[in-house]
Amino acid sequence: MENTPVQKRPAEAAAEESTGVVRLPQKKFFRQRAHSNIFSDHHLDYPVSPDRMDWSKNYPKHFVPKDPEAAAASSLTQDSGKKIEFADIGCGYGGLLVALATVYPETLMLGMEIRVKVEEYVNQKILALRNNHPGSYDNVSILRMNAMKFLPNFFEKHQLSKLFFLFPDPHFKKRKHKARIITSTLLAEYAYVLRPGGIIYTISDVKDLHLWMVKHLDAHPLFVRIPDEELVDDPAVEHVRNATEEGQKVERNKGDKYLACYRRVTDEE
Amino acid sequence: MPVLPFSHILHHPTKDQVILAYGEHIQVVDTKTGVIVSSTADLEEREAGGLQVQPLTNTPDVEKQNKARVQQIAISNDGAFLATAADDKVMKIWNTESWKCLGTRTLVRRSNALQFTNDGSHVVTADKFGDIYNMERDIPDVVEPVKAEKTTEKTDGEGEGEGEGEDEDEGEQPILGHVSMATDLELTKDNKYIITADRDEHIRVSQFPKGHNIETYCLGHTGFVTEVRVLPGASNQYLISGAGDATVRVWEFLKGKEVQTFNVREALGLSPLDSESEEDELTVYSLAISESKNHIAVVIEKESKVLILQWDPATAKVEVFKILEVQGHALAADYDRSGKLWVSSVIEEGTTGLLSVYDEEYNLQEDLAKYANTFGSKTVDSLPDLYSTEELRKRTTDWRDLKKAREEKEAARRANDPDAAPTKKRRTNKNSRKIPEPAPAASTADATMQE
Ligand SMILES: C[S@@+](CC[C@H](N)C(=O)[O-])C[C@H]1O[C@@H](n2cnc3c(N)ncnc32)[C@H](O)[C@@H]1O
Questions:
Q1: Which of B162, B216, B397 sits opposite A41 (nearest CB)?
Q2: Domains of chain A
Q3: Nearest residue CA, atom 24 of ligand 1?
Q4: Catalytic option among A88, A138, A169, A205
Q5: Which spans does this entry mark as compositional bias, Basic and acidic residues (chain B) (predicted)?
Q6: What structural domains and CATH numbers belong to chain B?
Q7: Each residue's pLDDT tens digit in chain A (269 positions)?
Q8: Residue B158 to residue A176, Cβ atoms within 8 A
Q9: Are the C-beta atoms of B161 and B108 separated by less than 8 Å?
Q10: Chain B residue numbers touching A220 (CB-CB < 8 A)
Q11: Given Cys at both, which of A107, A142, B2, B103 links A122, Cβ 3.0 to 4.6 Å?
């Protein structure tokens, strides 16, 4: 994880120095092509298994570094005991995380994003928010990761209570469907990291993709659709619709948004 | 000129026979006499030294023979059926009495592992794209036309076998899948679970056949996993795995708990690596298990040493029992049902040592190997790379493009030098294995971007 901020213009830096307020990073400096090949061996850092993951870089207020030297330098003497419970898969520019951080201040949440530049942007944004709002945003973080391959390296069985798939890449061409982030075989892995009772949130402006996700989730024995009526009480839903950059773009373009949420049921015997 | 090595050795569970595969052929050897009793090939007469070709007891069906190399073989528990899968993606089912081919079927993708269910009614395959299928054994006796290679759209990241109009919701559906190449599979003795391994160091334990219920993962390997096998013992709760990280590991698999890490380099007495940070390329290529002796024969990629481990179910530990030294490089191994070990090797010249047979005390039994060494297999111009682990090593490319790249390189090499020996795959610079870190300046144009 790169925590080094990008070069700042002198005026900006001076302004920050005098006010102590860090300017939020600007997206235009972090643009990257829309797609990564999810079948490639990107340079990715992932732990061999969840118990070997050092989360202290992501959540310095919750985890003591695993390295003894770094641990001695840490302000924490012991872990807060919390585990990550929400994961935003393909979080893009991180709008959902930033919104949910204050809605669920006691819950650790993580965004996973495969594009380097986008991850850098979100990371800086979170660092700036933490700086500007002491005591807040210590519960959110982002990792550059291929979530289709390495979820079990980060999360234990049944660790998560919410998984978000918001406006995922549509991969329109039929022969590209295997690259879609919801497939019948990947759902088994999502069911593994989600606890019984946990929820998968999906939303898309592409009707075809929405129908695809619904078809596969409906067919999966470990997921049941949550009726729309039950969702009105869920505080996450309005942010699922509106908090992400993609969701706001669809809003501006007056596009449709198709929501489908599923509850993970208990394992079959 | 070299002779094709036996790429696979598989013991018959109820008869004194082993099945050998080489190139596109399969061959059956009587383990009491060493005589070849069945073969899909005409036996080649080389320097026989007075040895006589023995008449075959039956002539296998060679009508459906094609030139595709056999890549996987499996036999049903009762020994009645043999399944083979070749590099043209065609799977065949053989009757092991008559050696008639009972049916053929084109798989969606190349198979990396095959296994029959306990009742023999299904064959489970793990494929190159990570999908696991549970297929009925009694398959229609038809060979679908193998899809023509697409020439126009080869670099867009989606590799072989995916036709434009193909709907992945039609036809056979996988019972589970990895987003990575699946390298091996193993059904537990009671067939309640399936254990699958992949190129991204994962071992997954799922319910069988309802593979969408994942029980756990066995995580610990730091290189691609090559083989997973349930260990013998009353509890049936231990698994052994081999990988490209120079280790063999023992797991209590339903708990996802590693109970032993066994360092193969150390055990072989090989020199340790120069630096700590260096990743070990020593690869555990395959494992053979003797249930009667609780022995495990560990075949290591491009090594002449075969490691024999003693498994103790009471302490849940393996330890070195013996190290065998074979000619050439060991490629495949299996114990026959009386506990003799059959090992095949890649031999650059001649035929001695193509097959080595060891009795229960690991004494070499030359008489049992001589028929197969003399008449089995066939002479070829040059040896292909039979280990095929190159595409398992990590690079910053789409793993599905690697085979293509290798073939192109090989073709170019041959075009330049028709007498050339096959390229040596092992790199001398061990550091080259590391995935290059994208340079900070280059991060704007991430080298892995595709579209
Ligand atoms: C269309 S964007 C949506 C971003 C965000 N959820 C939003 O609503 O604004 C989809 C994102 O998923 C990311 N992505 C695609 N495949 C991924 C994978 N396998 N692992 C992690 N991120 C992935 C892409 O890089 C992209 O940023």
A1: B397
A2: 44-264 (3.40.50.150)
A3: A90
A4: A169
A5: 144-157, 403-417
A6: 8-420 (2.130.10.10)
A7: 444 444 555 555 556 666 778 888 887 777 666 556 665 666 788 999 999 999 999 999 999 999 999 999 988 999 999 999 999 999 999 999 999 999 999 999 999 999 999 999 999 999 999 999 999 999 999 999 999 999 999 999 999 999 999 999 999 988 888 889 999 999 999 999 999 999 999 999 999 999 999 999 999 999 999 999 999 999 999 999 999 999 999 999 999 999 999 999 998 76
A8: yes
A9: yes
A10: 212
A11: A142
**Six token digits for residue A8:** 């700042």
Residue listed under structure tokens 């190997």 = B369
φ, ψ of residue A88 in degrees (nearest 5) = -105, 110
- Alpha carbon of A185: minimum distance to chain B alpha carbons (Å): 5
CB contact under 8 A, B435 and A43: yes
Which residue reads 């910053």 in tokens? B396
> What band does B416 get if pLDDT is binned at 50, 70 and 90?
low
Mapped onto helix, strand or coil, the DSSP state of residue B56 is coil
DSSP sequence for B255-314: GTEEEEEEEHHHHTTPPPPSSTTSPP---EEEEEEETTTTEEEEEETT-SEEEEEEEETT
Strand B317-325 vs strand B182-187: parallel, antiparallel, or unpaired? unpaired
B185 vs B124, B132, B178, B407, CA distance in Å? Answer: 8, 9, 12, 27
Do A138 and B188 touch, CB atoms closer than 8 A? no
Tell me how close the Cα of B340 comes to any Cα of chain A, in angstroms: 37
> pLDDT tens across B141-197, in order?
544 444 433 333 333 333 333 333 344 566 789 999 999 999 999 999 999 999 999
